[in-house]
Design a protein that fits this description.
The chain is an alpha+beta fold and about 180 residues long. It has two domains: about 45 residues, no CATH class; about 110 residues, Sandwich (Immunoglobulin-like), CATH 2.60.40.790. It contains three helices and nine strands. β3 and β4 form a beta hairpin. α1 packs parallel to α3. It is globular and about 65 Å long. The chain starts with 7 loop residues before the first helix and ends with a strand.
């Protein structure tokens, strides 16, 4: 009798592949909701690390799988987005594009401390290329957008469009670094 032992990580890899297919059919919230059901505290640290790597190095925080994380709110006259971008040092590292209904941030963050792979015990901080598009809760005027990056937070202030109508193009927004 031949018995084969099934690696439990193979099943998780299959779930990760299925997740990508489901994400295309549904939304990015699908995996976030699924992972909330996994009792991460009961997993051995290496299982948690392996699961995280199979899912593209995304974290399992309560907030989101997307990077960079964002807070989005609106006032009477503005829509404001605040992105977490620690390690972003200059305007050359990031591109911010605002359209009347969306905001897109893309760029690169380099790892600040070089460590040999075999000596790295834990790596939770993000490094590498990123891109994220967020749908805005109200139409905005891209040409009247201001952005400032300070202490690892990129604050983007977008004036709301006064009246509906008119087709406006998107605009690349310069970012002030301080």
């Amino acid at each position: 009798m031949v018995t084969s032992t099934m690696n439990p990580f193979d099943q998780i890899r299959n779930i990760a592949q299925l997740n990508e297919q489901m994400r295309k059919m549904f939304s990015g919230d699908y995996m976030q909701n699924l992972v909330k059901q996994i009792p991460m505290s009961e997993l051995h640290p290496m299982q948690s690390f392996e699961l995280e790597n199979m899912l593209g190095g995304k974290t399992f925080g309560a907030a989101s799988f997307e990077y960079p994380r964002v807070d989005l709110y609106q006032t009477r006259h503005e829509v404001v987005a605040v992105f977490e971008v620690p390690g972003l040092e200059s305007a050359a590292d990031v591109r911010l594009t605002v359209k009347p209904e969306t905001i897109t941030i893309a760029g690169d963050i380099e790892r600040q401390v070089a460590v040999e792979k075999d000596r790295l015990h834990l790596s939770e901080r993000f490094s590498g290329s990123f891109s994220r598009t967020v749908t805005l809760p109200a139409r905005v005027r891209p040409s009247q957008t201001r952005a400032r990056c300070r202490n690892g937070l990129l604050e983007v202030r977008m004036n709301k469009e006064g009246r509906p109508g008119g087709r406006r193009r998107g605009a690349d927004v310069p970012i002030m670094f301080r």
